[in-house]
Amino acid sequence: MSENTQKLINYLKRYWTLYLLLVLPIAYFFIFRYIPMTYIQIAFKKYSIVKSVWEMPWADSNGFEYFIKAFSNADFLYALRNTISLNLLDLVIGFPAPIILALLLNELAFVKFKRLTQTVAYMPHFLSWIIISGIALQLFAPSTGLANIMLNSLGFETIPFLNDPKHWIATYILLGVWQSVGWNSIIYLAALTGINPELYEAASIDGAGRFKKMWHVTLPGLRSTIIVLLIMNLGRILGSEFDRPYALRNPLVDNVSNVISTFVYTNGIRGLQFSLTTAVGLFQSVVCVVFLIGANSLAKKFGERGIW
Amino acid sequence: MKRVLLVLLACLVVAMSLAACGSGDSAAPSTSQGSAVSSGTADASNAQGLPGRFAETKKITVEVFDRAVDGGTKAEDNFYTNFIKEGMLRDYNVEVTFVPVPRWTETEQMNNLLAAGTAPDVCLTYSYPTVQTYANMGGIVDLAPLLESNKDKLTDLYSLLGEENINWNKDPDKGTIWAIESMLFQNKRINTFVREDWLKKLNMAEPTTLEEFETMLKAFKDNASTLLGANANKMIPFLLSVDIGWTADHLLTSFIPNSFTDSEKEYFANNFDDRHLLATGYKNGVKKLNEWYNAGLVWKDFPLYPAGDKNIDNQMKAGYVGAFIHNWDYPYRNGDDSIAANIKKLAGADAAYVAIETFKNDAGVYKKFLSAPIDRKIFFPSTNKETEASLLYLNWISKLDNRKFLQIGEEGVTHEVLPDGIIKSIATTGEKFMNSPYNIDYTMTINGLDLGDKDLTTKSVALGYAGVEPKYVQKAYELTSKDAFIEKHINVGPIKSEEGMGPALKEKRDNMLVQSVTAKPEKFDSIFDSGMKDYLASGGKAIIDERAAAYDKYHK
């Protein structure tokens, strides 16, 4: 027996329990993440409920029938446009919001007040979009909504928060911010505690005020967290939640509220066109991966750590 | 260390063997159960069996809709399922097991069951496109040869459904039958309702023309403070929901010229949409709604609530609504929680909705468009190994005595018999509570009360609404099908371009109608026309063309 084999055996004798522990998560990922991926084939095949995925016949046009069908569907293209524009708006407005909230909370002097604010800000995160849409109706409906009743009694015009496409987009984005800002700020608040207090002291000695300290100490301290989260958000640029647009939409704003997930629901799942659904889903995932990798390598180019 | 490894290995082996058993274990206990039952009934057999009774016990599973009603019993195990089970065992020596499927997600659930190969032997759904989709994939049994060879044993099924409903979906080329249609016994659809007490207060007669109806709506609006007092600003002269095609049906279809239904081909080609969106003249009806909307006669917030949202009913229950169009018995349904009962509590003892006839078409007829007399679609998945027993089940459930018991239950518990034989429903709780009106979920082959005598049935239906004065129900019952147009069944087999398009086109229809109704008057035409253009381009036109071509092929 050579020396190396002996070493390996000794190594395994010593550490085999750790490898055994690793088996579980690997099995989990293999069974629940990788084996299901073989079903991606459905996008290129004519779906059948009774045949196994390996036996289904290939779709027309070299298997790309359903991709062609999706891209020649005007509704899909609208849904694609809406998905991108709503997600971009979410990114531009929704991404900085928790950072700002974290910075503000960090500056609060009264600990009790800070905790209360934090808790209140988290709460909407635990509400489902169905409930939020119910609240939104109670508040923003044109004639029975509380907000409009108040506006009317103060002599202002009714604002079509939900029944005009432009106003709807604003309502949609701001409700999203309201729902998630508190929760998303937790990670920044955690990162803030990791900043060395000596840096603040040094900055004070150098004569820096509150804003200078925020700009030169706090924000740089948060930078790597911000970048990681930004990369992950860019990876979701074409992803779409289902419950938020589905719960908030109504027939008057259909041309801005129909996103890929709602398109998949009505045309694919309810219309029993499972191959089409899978094709759209695959397209979505591929674009998301491209964005994720792109954003990551860009971050690395600028000297950040990235996510891998 | 070795010992630990051994223990781990042993655990693994046990776990794997358990997992391997998983697929087979359901078979083991059921076979033993089966033999026990068959040996138990062997001696009592033949005595009272019906033609086709099996010598040896067969087993089938049957789908039943589960509505999860408050105060209800278990859908798959209760007084009525036991009645069926006992009867089937006695008459045919077939052991029935019920499989509950949630009513409101039935299609999704059926997908899962079929994909997993665990669908019940006897399945039902309201969606024929679903059946067609599964049939195309080879997941459904062709009933045609089975019905043919067992016809002499299925007398009750044939006498209830008739050749018409049984052969409804027969493919004109291949002769396949993927599903038979159950019977819609009371073909009732829609009514127009107005507040009877408001008419009285304003000294107005029931409107009989569109103009009078419009005058009435305006009167409701102008007299809001008389009618609603402090709540005057909540007045809704005419209620609408996003399902405009349904909640304005009588108004919209009155704009369709009589000639449209005279041409069988034109009607068939444009009849994909069950709200008649593609009919000639429909646009004029929508324009009328647009006028009303802009004149403040229609509920302003309607586009925001999904059809079926409780908030819509609440407007009626609270007594803010002057008139609406809906299911023929809508205000009278649901006993203590009906709109009729609520409005009495909240708006005064004389408050009531009464059905009226007010929208005439170009020929001066109050024409009502009824759907075909078909209801649920019954099919057998290809996993069904007991097709004959399953057919006999359908026959058993179609037998008048059996379905009558299921529909009205036990005398003195769920109904009482009035002197002239009329059946009056009584509310009950406990094990004999019916989970659905007339136990529609157990009488798979029929929807609607049938006592075997037409006059008796009609009178009994009027008494089927606890707490509602029979005169209201009778009037609604009469008007909803007066001067009815029932479409002729034209069988051309599957229309390829309709496949998978139903939900998407339905959504497009609702969206374009809502957008048109709420448009500014000067923009109405452009919005309606562009919506229609989009509808046609997204599949509507292809469907019309294919339907017209198919009509020519089979019916020229």
From TrEMBL, chain A:
Membrane topology, from the record: Multi-pass membrane protein
Membrane-spanning segments: 16-35, 84-105, 126-149, 169-193, 214-235, 274-295
Subcellular location: Cell membrane
This protein's UniProt keywords: Cell membrane, Membrane, Sugar transport, Transmembrane, Transmembrane helix, Transport
Keyword Transport carried by entry: yes
GO biological process: transmembrane transport
Domain ABC transmembrane type-1: 80-295
Record-linked Pfam families: BPD_transp_1 (PF00528)
GO cellular component: plasma membrane
InterPro entries for this protein: MetI-like, MetI-like_sf, UgpAE/MalFG_permease
Keyword Phosphoprotein attributed: no
Gene3D superfamilies: MetI-like
Domain of life: Bacteria
Chief location: membrane
Family: Belongs to the binding-protein-dependent transport system permease family.
PANTHER family according to UniProt: BLL4140 PROTEIN
Protein name: Putative multiple-sugar transport system permease YteP
TrEMBL record, chain B:
Gene3D superfamilies xrefs: Periplasmic binding protein-like II
Renumbered residue ranges of the record's region Disordered: 24-49
Annotated Polar residues bias: 28-48
Keywords, alphabetical: Signal
Signal peptide from the UniProt entry: 1-19
InterPro entries the UniProt entry points to: Bact_solute-bd_prot1
Protein name: Lipoprotein LipO
